[in-house]
Amino acid sequence: MESSKKAWSRPMTNDPATIMQGQIDAQAAAAEVDLARVRLLTVGERAALIESACRAAAEIARSRQSAGLPPIEPDPWPASTWEFLRKHAARV
Fold this sequence. Notes:
By secondary structure, this protein is mostly helical. It has one domain (2-91). The protein has helices at residues 2-9, 16-39, 43-66, 79-91.
């Protein structure tokens, strides 16, 4: 949480680089809090959270389709993700 204190204790400035760094620091602090909150969840609670996110994504896809918009093309997974999955599958 040290970075969040720094982000909010900076003096006011009009320097774009300083403003941007403050925003980056604040976003990182918020992400740390969110991640800490997720780590406190049980496996069942995490599963429910993932299921909820999947349902929301499906609803967005249906809404896009009904509006005549093309489906969203996701970015391909990076090589590091495929390597992680390969190693995990080898252990299971």
